[in-house]
Amino acid sequence: MTTPVLFNRRHFLARSTLGLGALAFGQLLGDAVHAGGAPGSSILTPHFKPRAKRVIFLFQSGGPSQLELLDYKPGLRVHFDQDLPDSIRMGQRITGMVTGQARLPVAPSKHTFSQCGQNGRWIGDLLPHTQKIADELCVINSMNTEAINHDPAITFIQTGSQQPGRPCLGSWVDYGLGSESENLPSFVVLISVPATGTGDQGLLSRLWGSGFLPSRHQGIKLRNGSESVLYLNDPVGLDRAGRRQWLDTLATLNTAELQKAHDPEIATRITQYEMAYRMQTSMPDLMNVSGEPESTYTLYGESARQPGSYAANCLLARRLAERGVRFVQLYHRGWDHHGNLPERIGVLSRDVDQASAALVSDLKQRGLLDDTLVIWGGEFGRTVYSQGTLTQDNYGRDHHGRAFSIWLAGGGVKPGLTYGRTDDFSFNIAESPVHIHDLQATILHCLGFDHERLTYRFQGRQYRLTDVHGKVVKDIVERS
Description:
It is a single chain. By secondary structure, this protein is α/β, with parallel strands linked by helices. Helix content is 33%, strand content 17%. It has one domain (34-476): Alkaline Phosphatase, subunit A (3-Layer(aba) Sandwich), CATH 3.40.720. The chain has 13 helices and 17 strands. The strands form 5 sheets. Strands 1, 4, 5, 6, 7, 8, 11, 12 and 15 form a 9-stranded mixed sheet that branches. A two-stranded antiparallel ribbon has the order 2-3. Strand 16 (455-458) and strand 17 (461-464) form a beta hairpin. Helix 8 (240-261) runs antiparallel to helix 9. It is globular and about 75 Å long.
């Protein structure tokens, strides 16, 4: 008696040439052929001539206070310790961390500002090196987000959604442009902590994940220890020739399974093994900064000699940009200043000020700034009212997404521009609001993509980074 063969849905999708797996694999192959087919090559063609080829996002995790750094409000001094006017708050929600306070007293910044650059823009004196590059910066003082707490806010600015599961910005850029380098990933992540050693809010790996995009588009995190990428080194007893033979055998097995299962992730596995093999020689060269001249450390600061510091990561970001990496995501943690803000923001500002300015200057002197878009900012800003006890010398600030500040440089944005304006309390936007989706749309525009057309079909619909919102902020973009 012959035993009947039973097919379930998994068998059907894996084996049938008309299954969804086969269709997905066919689409993957079609994209590769359309783009030239080489692993790591661009999958899509830009919709118009790009101004930027790469992005370096200096993400200040925790929410830097715009009131101390980029949004000058000298008029607040006369409102010290007065209640935030109802006409300003307008019943807008606040976090649970201050709902128990009897009052919301206005806390003017203890720190001073200076006018900088040819246009005399105001930048906080906590950022003296940033003040020197004022003419290179496009400062946006009218950023806004719906998210009110860290995880949804960081997820939102990174992925376009407050809910986890979507591809991050770096993955979308990799999906659209592919890599300029054969020996390094297209999307690299660096993480640093403040000099005090306290990192505040955690960072989850899904923030640089590819979501529903193929996994080859996820970010590769570089570690600060002796092994910059886990499991990259050969095990003891396996030499270079042995590794090559092992990979060739593995590729043969994976290719056979790919022809049977039509699973695009198997194709990803094959290409990623090959990338890891090439990275065995490219990573030591990248991480070896011994050839950098003393002038580099004069520019970036002495902390650039310390692996894992913000300055060292900014230097690595420049080295990655030189080697063709499309997207560098640098996270610096510690900006969540609910208390003791005047002292703590001084530490964070010293951490990032010189190296951020150095990166922009370094890229410019190497001829890379014109086609590298540098972004500096966090997931939201801080409130004008004090969290906790307010004194002349000390106060804290709660989360504030209604209005906050970032800056951009290079890559097709207008230098020396201050865009958008908040009210006298830096609480609401008074002119030219820029939503998170508007910022994302503008970044993609600088890279040559129409954000409404850079899409990926998943679960029956076309998804995009900006969901169903967003518009390019054309006033800050240079014309081609």
